[in-house]
Backbone:
């Protein structure tokens, strides 16, 4: 691998890589992100390579396995460059057709995406509504680069921000640029990044000047920069996709952070459920080290930097910064009171900056393109873009990136293509277990920190779950509480016991044993847990309960007063029966009932034994004559 | 214990190595065998107390060997609203597991509920023996488990030992 000693070497390398790329050469890029991979993208890549190997077409066509393109619902995705022809739901058996079409300059019509609104096939990637309404910054290079090839990243001006910054900007200038850009942390709370950095930089400088020693096991440095890749919000995968699809982009941000703060060691903390992200990041670090973008005297600037990957072990609270630090130190991942903030005393007692994956990804972009560029997108108080993983009961699920301030409605109806099966939208949940449920009436709310906070929810790190008429909001509140209760570290009483009490009440309500008094007690608990917990987990755990109580109180009341779940989601409150007049006695439900609770003779009306019925709803789903009734 | 010796050599013997040492031990054995933990406590600055504290804190660690087949079902939000609870129930019923039991008596299956695989766009998501499946249904899940069981039983009959 090329060894870089000065910024000019990087430019020369980039030119050399670019000169090797023939813009007219056909390139088939296949998304091999987690979604597409599980739908069989690996086989598609393999099959493409086999077909092309030893074939005359092999020289003219190359195959690239890239990270997540975002439109996971439609995977595996294939994009042909330079024509930008976009295929979805591609299987290995389609490979010969794709190649034949390429030879004949045609397209495989059946693999094109069909716009559900117009019923017309769409040929090019950027014409697909899911993509055409996005503005990609953080996700920009996903889908363009092979995450395991540093040269792909360098060809797209990768590490140019490192070259520019390390040799022409002082740390003070960098902080000033970030301040001007108005960048706010994307991990959830939206804290201004420059403010945090300034504090840590001052603390590190002070320690450097006064000498100072190392703690146990600590690498030699006066401070640390950490990338928070714990992504604890269940139902969100933005950070995963970026770490997997563009690891060098995040790594470049971390190097820039290290330089700015005067920290010589950086960490990636990545959750263990993300093996591919860990693997790709390790590989990126190896490659960057081999060519001199990590290690001693980077590009002749005199700045030394080393990066270590630490893995989480399945504890949500470790996404909280002080718990994350304890976890890297090898201890139980319990939060501690702040102050002191990590920027004063963090990992091994040294000033430490922790930022989210997306925050780090913006850094090189801002330093390369300037703060005006970043400020030009989004709203005055929330500049830049928002990345969401749009999931749940929506037609187009996947990763989206839009300017801050875009109305929620636009995300759900245009990018998301509306609610699944034409059902009625009930709510949109943002912010994960810390966030809230936004009712359909407030769908015109713009997505930015202040607007979402103002209606009781929050930006969060980017989870966005769409809920329809079949989703029970009490069940959702119970679901989140069950999650936070399990994940509560137990250090402080309000959170440890408060979430437990709240969960008990919610369980009573969803099983038909709740009373109206329970609603009052629930609200009281919610308010006091929020006010008195030690860390963000406890302080935000009541949010899903409070917002559902605020916007969907009638559902709670139906559960406690009428013992009814209008969404038919709470098992104990639903009964199934067969309408004799409609039942044809086909026996399909009998075969699907897991507990053999349906009886009846063939061609005669059947009956469900209510004692044996486990209310799984299989019969309701399979009956072709709508003879199964659900109350 | 050779594996444990190598791990300690590689990760060091300071207190700060605890999480990594346990992760690697579990990587090798699939769980945390008592002898391995005792060895670590005797040959490093990591104490028994710290090991127990750390191992019980993080959900990943287990003290018992896992079953021959791993069934993981996502309990994340995206999967929850698209029907994960029915799948979780189906697996527990099919494998006859109650309460906090996670491994079948015959040691054939270990059933884990996962916070989120990060494949939420394909909800509901399950991972059986490393293979990810999207848009899962209770029916498909039961069939999958039955097929594995059938194969395992057939294997046992063929195997003369
Ligand atoms: C319970 C809890 C879980 C958190 N999980 C995450 C997470 O998964 N990823 C993340 O970036 N920040 C998470 N945070 C926020 C971090 O503590 C921290 O504020 C953030 O990483 C700072 O980065 P930012 O300034 O770039 O947003 C969590 C906070 C709490 C209280
Ligand atoms: S609020 Fe909950 S998670 Fe946070 S320190 Fe207290 S018990 Fe632990
Ligand atoms: S919520 Fe199930 S994979 Fe994320």
Residues:
């Amino acid at each position: 691998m090329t060894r870089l000693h000065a910024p000019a070497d990087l430019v020369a390398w980039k030119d050399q890589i670019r000169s090797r790329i023939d813009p007219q050469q056909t390139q088939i890029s296949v998304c091999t992100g987690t979604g597409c991979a599980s739908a069989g993208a690996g086989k598609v890549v393999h099959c493409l390579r086999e077909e092309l190997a030893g074939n005359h077409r092999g020289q003219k066509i190359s195959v690239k396995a890239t990270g997540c393109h975002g439109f996971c619902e439609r995977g595996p995705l294939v994009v042909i460059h330079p024509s930008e022809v976009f295929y979805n739901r591609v299987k290995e058996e389609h490979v010969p057709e794709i190649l034949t079409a390429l030879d004949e300059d045609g397209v495989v019509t059946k693999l094109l995406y069909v716009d559900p609104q117009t019923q017309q096939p769409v040929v090019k990637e950027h014409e697909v509504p899911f993509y055409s309404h996005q503005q990609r910054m953080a996700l920009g290079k996903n889908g363009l680069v092979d995450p395991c090839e540093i040269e792909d990243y360098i060809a797209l001006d990768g590490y140019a921000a490192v070259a520019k910054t390390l040799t022409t900007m002082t740390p003070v200038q960098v902080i000033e640029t970030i301040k001007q850009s108005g960048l706010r942390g994307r991990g959830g709370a939206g804290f201004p990044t420059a403010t945090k950095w300034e504090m840590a930089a001052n603390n590190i400088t002070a320690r450097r000047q006064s000498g100072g020693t190392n703690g146990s096991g600590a690498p030699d440095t006066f401070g640390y920069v950490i990338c928070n890749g714990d992504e604890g919000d269940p139902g969100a995968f933005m950070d995963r996709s970026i770490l997997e699809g563009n690891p060098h982009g995040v790594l470049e941000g971390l190097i820039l952070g290290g330089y700015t703060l005067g920290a010589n060691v950086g960490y990636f903390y990545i959750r263990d459920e993300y093996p591919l992200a860990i693997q790709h990041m390790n590989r990126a670090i190896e490659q960057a080290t081999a060519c001199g973008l990590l290690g001693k005297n980077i590009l002749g600037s005199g700045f030394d930097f080393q990066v270590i990957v630490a893995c989480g072990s399945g504890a949500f609270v470790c996404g909280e910064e002080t718990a994350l630090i304890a976890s890297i130190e090898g201890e139980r991942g319990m939060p501690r009171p702040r102050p002191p903030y990590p920027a004063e005393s963090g990992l091994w007692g040294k000033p430490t900056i922790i930022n989210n994956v997306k925050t780090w990804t913006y850094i090189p972009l801002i330093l390369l393109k300037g703060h005006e560029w970043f400020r030009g997108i989004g709203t005055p108080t929330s500049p830049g873009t928002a990345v969401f993983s749009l999931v749940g009961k929506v037609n187009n699920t996947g990763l989206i990136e839009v300017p801050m301030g875009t109305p929620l409605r636009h995300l759900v109806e245009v990018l998301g293509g509306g609610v699944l099966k034409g059902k009625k939208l009930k709510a949109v949940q943002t912010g994960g277990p810390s966030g809230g449920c936004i009712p359909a009436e407030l769908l015109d709310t713009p997505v930015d920190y202040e607007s979402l906070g103002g209606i009781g929810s929050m930006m969060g790190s980017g989870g966005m779950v769409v809920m329809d008429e079949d989703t029970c909001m009490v069940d959702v509140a119970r679901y989140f509480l069950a999650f936070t209760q399990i994940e509560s570290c137990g250090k402080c009483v309000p959170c440890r016991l408060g979430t437990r009490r709240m969960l008990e009440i919610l369980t009573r309500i969803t099983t038909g044993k709740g009373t109206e008094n329970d609603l009052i007690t629930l609200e009281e608990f919610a308010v006091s847990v929020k006010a008195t917990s030690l860390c963000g987990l406890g302080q935000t755990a009541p949010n899903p309960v409070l917002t559902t109580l605020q916007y969907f109180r009638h559902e709670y009341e139906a559960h406690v007063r009428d013992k009814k779940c209008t969404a038919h989601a709470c098992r104990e409150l639903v009964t199934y029966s067969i309408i004799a007049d409609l039942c044809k006695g086909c026996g399909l439900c009998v075969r699907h009932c897991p507990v053999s609770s349906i009886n009846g003779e063939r061609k005669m009306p059947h009956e469900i034994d209510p004692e044996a019925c486990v209310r799984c709803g299989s019969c309701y789903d399979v009956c072709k004559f709508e003879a199964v009734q659900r109350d | 214990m050779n594996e444990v010796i190598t791990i300690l050599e590689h990760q060091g013997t300071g207190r700060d190595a605890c999480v990594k040492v346990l992760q690697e031990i579990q990587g090798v054995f699939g769980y945390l065998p008592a002898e391995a933990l005792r060895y670590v406590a005797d040959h490093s600055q990591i104490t028994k107390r710290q090991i127990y504290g750390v191992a019980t804190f993080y959900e990943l660690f287990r003290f018992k060997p896992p079953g021959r087949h791993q069934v993981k079902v996502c309990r994340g939000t995206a999967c929850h609203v698209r029907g994960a609870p029915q799948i979780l129930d189906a697996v527990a019923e099919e494998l006859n597991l109650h309460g906090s039991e996670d491994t079948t008596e015959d040691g054939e299956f270990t059933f884990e509920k996962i916070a989120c695989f990060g494949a939420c766009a394909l909800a509901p998501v399950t991972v059986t023996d490393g293979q990810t499946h999207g848009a899962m249904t209770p029916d498909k899940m039961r069939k999958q488990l039955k097929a594995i069981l059938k194969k395992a039983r057939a294997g046992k009959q063929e195997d003369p030992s």
Remarks:
- Residues 141 and 246 of chain A are 6 Å apart (CA to CA).
- The radius of gyration of chain A is 27 Å.
- Residues A 234-235; B 74, 76-79, 116-120, 123, 125 surround FE2/S2 (inorganic) cluster (ligand 3) (CB under 6 Å).
